[in-house]
Design goal:
The structure holds two protein chains of two kinds. Chain A is an all-alpha fold. Chain A contains six helices and no strands. In chain A, helix 4 (96-127) packs antiparallel against helix 5 (136-165). The chains are: A mainly alpha, B mainly alpha.
């Protein structure tokens, strides 16, 4: 590995300056994601426990949910992960232009997902009369999906910041790890959504 | 050779980044240097000083409690004031004393033990401290407000903490303060994990890590995996209080037992977060003063790991009386008893370390031996609690109070006090006088036992916890009186300890390098430790690295000179610039937290729309935080290069921008 730094190729999977060869930022992100797993785990558990004990008068979740819309936004979020992976791949090859297009598409898909969620929330509140205060289902549903939505929003802001930063000329192949660790976060948020989609939505249709 | 150079040395051809908005601070002394420091040693001092300050505060709260309970039917405190005292005493001692003093050692000692020049993310480290301080301030703001301080117990059980039963902002401050303390702890723990995994000096394999570093690693993992549970619990109670959700609102299907589960899923690992650092400190002190390597090093390490792992499977033993059912109770009882095994193994390993050693009874050793004995007593009563039927009798009684003070004072605090004595020469270059050190030890030891041993009997005689007074005919008078007298002896001991420390800081006997003839790497450094820590990144050849170096001086010094040349060829020692942004982010968080927790919700007649003072203050704080973090990430890891001669005198210092480039 020692010759890599001297010649122009960079090994993106080995950082000779760390004890393990894994870049510091990657270890940090993995450890943070482990922590975030517990975070969402507790929220999802709260929802699943309360789901089993609905007080009388709770509307059945199936009457509220619109599985078509949510399936669409789930698909869009998954596609954004694909674009994210392409962006990481591009920067690792030093292809800034390709990375920018992939990032822009990722942001666009992320925004579509957020838009669907805003529409869904408004629809639930104004049409289906499910609010965060009027039932335990509303409480756990809005808190859980809203927290996930906040994670997506943070991701979109981060992605946009990185996209803007790429125009300063300071983002090069050597800083690919910055994009890669952002990608880890983005994929994680997607995976959490798959769990939420299964545990909150699909479970009601069994 | 790359392994010696820091990562920044490899990236070449970068242009220096121009400072954005705010300058890059370079002050080395004065207030600004402390506000902008990114040096792990200085951040360690900040944690330690804050922890000791809150130790005094929490101690005063404890004394007020003991004055109230000294005699039956006392009216020194009202029941409301008493609730505030025991709530703040518990919250302070756990989150603002034991955790930050532990963090002080993580910060100061751990990087030195693994041969690193700083933690992996120095600015994140500063951010952790400032966030911790903001959390501590928010929890304590009630002293200056008419709402008063939090009063629902350190466990904050719902529905007592819901708006219906606690309408004032006191609980909002408790919730917000703990939330921030959690953020600070997680950020710091992530940093320590990366540092230990990735920044070890060449030759420092995992199984050569000093045990204190191992315990730092385990504690950090416990923090990042258990704090999210209390984060969610606090989010839920905050949503209930601010937005009227139903998480703990029974009339709408909420279940208060959920709070207990979430709290204790955090709360029990938290117990190990408090004790594992203590075990690490003890595992450093006993070998040093027994003049033997630690007995059964791998077993001690694996015991620490299994304690941490099992710690996640025992939370419901705090809830035996809540009616979980026989099977759940039995399962949690068994798991709890299982934890006694690795703990016992550690105790035997420490005894094995002492056995046949050439013991030197210095003050740190006295505290360490006190730990061993007192922690065992706490452990024994802990095993008694593990048996569910027995616990049903002891639950909520003073027996429990006796138990957890034996593990938290006799365990954690004794070890932390030992650690301060032990590393004081390294931190300040001065040594505490043996006479006053030992005097404080005996006062603390006697006072501690006089305070808490009678509580075992009080508990078995049925005295309940958190009761603000009692009748004279219950048979509890003598025990309580002894306990209160003991509390003042204990306070006197802590007072002597602190005064001795302050005196020693200014006037104590100066010591040279390595005054204890110790074994681990941090003692290879001169005191006080220079900013760059190691003149040359050391190469580790054995488990007790410094012990080996002392016995192979020629070989090691030859190797060092070689490496010094190699490092110089790489451009010298890279030192990061200080940064103001972690502090500014903390200021933003403080404003936002005050907005969320304290500013009253808008009066809708005055502010009909979305905007009101509460929203405005919260968003303003959030905006300051956001802008600070953006600027922080844009300022880059600029720094200077230091060049040293053979004696460690600085011969050159060249600033460089962005990433080190021009060599």
């Amino acid at each position: 590995m020692s010759s890599d730094a001297a010649t122009a190729t960079i090994d993106h999977h080995f950082d000779p300056t760390t004890s393990t060869g894994i870049p510091n930022k990657k270890v940090l992100m993995w450890a943070f994601l482990a922590s975030d797993c517990m975070f969402f785990g507790c929220l999802i558990s709260t929802h699943l426990i309360y789901r089993l004990h609905p007080p009388p008068g709770t509307p059945p979740a199936r009457q509220v949910f619109s599985i078509e819309l949510t399936s669409f936004s789930t698909f869009i979020l998954l596609m954004s992960s694909l674009m994210m992976a392409l962006a990481v791949n591009a920067i690792q090859k030093g292809n800034l232009k390709s990375m920018r297009w992939s990032l822009l598409t990722t942001i666009f898909f992320g925004c579509i997902f957020l838009g669907c969620q805003v529409y869904e929330f408004r629809n639930f509140v104004y049409e289906k009369h499910l609010t965060i205060t009027n039932s335990i289902l509303g409480t756990t549903f809005f808190t859980l999906t809203g927290t996930h939505g906040l994670h997506v929003l943070v991701g979109v802001i981060w992605l946009s910041g990185m996209l803007l930063y790429s125009f300063t000329g300071r983002l090069t192949e050597k800083e690919a790890i910055d994009v890669e660790s952002m990608g880890l976060y983005w994929h994680f948020v997607d995976i959490v959504w798959i769990v939420i989609f299964t545990a909150v939505y699909l479970l009601e249709y069994i | 050779m790359e392994a010696i150079a820091k990562s920044d040395f490899l990236a070449k051809g970068q242009q220096p980044a121009k400072p954005l908005v705010l300058w890059r601070p370079t002050a080395k002394t004065g207030l600004l240097s402390w506000l902008t420091t990114v040096d792990h040693k200085r951040i360690g001092f900040l944690y330690g000083a804050s922890g000791l300050f809150f130790l005094v505060m929490g101690g005063i709260e404890a004394l007020l409690i003991r004055i109230q309970l000294a005699v039956p039917n006392n009216t020194f405190l009202t029941s409301a004031q008493y609730s505030e005292m025991f709530t703040m005493h518990g919250t302070t001692m756990i989150f603002l004393v034991v955790m930050p003093i532990g963090a002080a050692f993580f910060n100061f000692v751990m990087p030195l033990q693994i041969g690193a020049r700083d933690v992996a993310f120095p600015r994140l480290n500063a951010f952790s401290y400032w966030t911790f301080l903001v959390g501590a301030i928010i929890v304590n703001l009630g002293w200056f407000m008419k709402d008063g301080v939090p009063n629902a117990g350190w466990v904050g059980y719902a529905p007592l903490t819901t708006r219906a039963f606690s309408p004032t902002h006191a609980i909002d401050m408790w919730v917000m303060g703990l939330q921030l303390l959690g953020v600070a702890s997680i950020a710091a723990a992530l940093n320590f994990i990366v540092t230990i995994i990735n920044m070890r000096a060449p030759g420092m394999t995992m199984m050569r890590l000093p045990v204190f570093t191992w315990m730092t690693l385990f504690t950090s993992f416990l923090i990042i995996l258990s704090f999210p549970a209390i984060t969610i619990a606090l989010v839920e109670i905050m949503m209930d209080r601010l937005f009227g959700t139903n998480f703990f609102e029974v009339s709408n299907g909420g279940m208060p037992i959920l709070w207990q589960h979430l709290f204790w899923i955090f709360g029990h690992p938290e117990v190990y977060i408090l004790i594992l650092p203590a075990m690490g400190i003890i595992s450093e002190i006993l070998p040093t003063f027994s003049r033997k390597p630690l007995f059964g090093y791998p077993i001690v390490v694996f015991s620490g790991a299994s304690i941490g792992l099992l710690g996640f499977g025992v939370w419901s033993h705090h809830m035996f009386t809540s009616g979980l059912g026989t099977v759940a109770n039995a399962a949690f009882a068994l798991m709890t008893m299982a934890i006694a095994v690795p703990t016992g193994v550690k105790i035997f390993n420490w005894i094995g370390t002492l056995w046949g050693g050439h013991l030197s009874m210095r003050t740190p050793m006295m505290f360490a031996l006190g730990f061993l004995w007192m922690f065992m007593i706490g452990g024994f009563s802990g095993v008694m609690h593990a048996a569910a039927p027995a616990d049903m009798q002891q639950h909520g009684s003073y027996f429990v109070v006796a138990h957890f003070h034996y593990v938290l004072i006799g365990g954690s605090l004794f070890a932390l006090l030992a650690g301060i004595h032990y590393w004081f020469p390294l931190m300040f270059g001065r040594k505490v006088s043996e006479l006053w050190g030992k005097a404080s030890f005996w006062l603390v030891f006697i006072g501690f036992n006089a305070t808490f041993f009678p509580m075992h009997f009080l508990g078995l005689e049925g005295m309940p916890r958190r009761t603000y007074t009692y009748d004279g005919n219950m048979g509890w008078n003598l025990g309580n009186m002894i306990s209160s007298v003991g509390a003042f002896i204990l306070a006197g001991g802590i007072g002597v300890y602190l005064v001795t420390m302050v005196y020693t800081y200014y006037r104590g006997e100066r010591t040279g390098k390595d005054p204890w003839d110790a074994r681990t790497l941090e003692w290879s450094l001169p005191n006080p430790v220079p900013e760059y820590n190691f003149r040359v990144i050391p190469t580790i050849h054995a488990r007790d690295g410094w012990w080996y170096e002392k016995r192979h001086a020629d070989e090691v010094s030859r190797e060092e000179e070689e490496h010094a040349k190699a490092e110089e060829a790489h451009g010298g020692i890279h030192m990061p610039f200080q940064s103001i942004y972690p502090f500014l982010a903390g200021v933003g968080i403080m404003i936002g937290a005050i907005g969320t927790a304290i500013v009253d919700p808008a009066d809708h007649n005055l502010y009909p729309g979305f905007w009101g003072p509460k929203i405005a203050v919260t968003l303003a704080g959030g905006a300051i935080m956001f802008v600070s973090i953006v600027l922080w990430s844009l300022e880059g890891c600029e720094g200077t290069h230091i060049h040293l001669d053979k004696d460690g005198t600085v011969t050159g210092d060249d600033a460089h921008g962005g990433y080190p480039s021009n060599h």
